Amino acid sequence: MHYTASVKHTSSISFACTIIVAVIAGFFIVQKQTATRIEHLLASPAITDQLAGISLAKQIPFTSLVALLHPILEKHTDASVAAQQLLVRTAFAEHRLQELEMLAIDKGLLDSAKWWKINPKRKPRHQIKTETPIAASLNFLAWYVDFEAPPPLDTLVELPIRDRDGSVLLAVLAIEKFATREQLRVISEHWILDYDVDRKKAAILFAALLRRENKFPHVQNSELFTLQSICEDANFSLAWRTLHNPDGTINPDIALAGMISNQEKFFPLLVETAKENTWKHPEHPIAIAMRFAPEIAERIPIDLLKNDESRTKWWALFTCGLLLEGR
User: Fold this and answer.
1) Using the 8-state DSSP alphabet, how is residue 60 labeled?
2) In contact, 208 and 260? CB cutoff 8 Å
3) Which of 248, 281, 285 is nearest to 266 (CA)?
4) Could you tell me which residues come within 8 angstroms of residue 69 by beta carbon, excluding any fewer than 6 positions away?
5) Which end of the chain is more exposed for a tag (fewer CB within 10 A), N or C?
6) Could you tell me the pTM of the whole model?
7) pLDDT tens across 279-308, in order?
């Protein structure tokens, strides 16, 4: 019996070792296949293939990544932009930013990464004077970004919530910031039954921000119907299709709904449209950025929001912050 037990024990160990060896071998085979596929995609003349290869290469160490991506860095394509971004992100993670100096990396991107490397801390906000017209009537913006102390919530919700372009974005973000979840739920349930279209819009967005599975009352108004459809089903595709106003500018309320429905897809769109100045008011995309990536936005100096030129720097730092966090 002792001999039989020993044989069984030995067989069990042998079987376990076989399984372990097979798993390890399988892992290396998969790794080799992935590496071969990445090389094949990066060597393709098609930009879509190159982008797919870059996406697969996200876990490759910096030194190997440089060798892989170097050939496409200077081609001035979407793939070269993606390659630069991946190299910067990897170099940042491995504390090797200085080694990017000799590569074809966009100077603004590299400078932004170096700025984040110093680990800037959040600074208390203070009032600033803007050189571009941000109307004094924008109380909701002032309260939202802590330029001024807000009135009590009871007063806040009685104020007109329509902005200069007809949106309710700033009021929604300000009220959400200063209300508890329960207060926001009550406001949403009350306003969805209001006759005022602006309050109905706000109610829909409040419910979406609360991540509630609401079924809203049927409406005839096309704007309300679109907003409801995006928020009820987290329908990013509908948000993307209806994002622009007839004049080509961005609809802030649809943009907020789009961000709620899918942050991963909407963040690049938010940054792109902000840089292209397709918003009527530049503070609107910044307010959305502050709401959905506060840990990044709050570390960027508020003084950079003074004018068009410095706002470009703000967005460069914000974009780089998203990149370095893998968002």
Assistant:
1) S
2) yes
3) 285
4) 42, 54, 57, 83, 86, 87
5) N
6) 0.82
7) 999 999 999 999 999 999 999 988 888 888
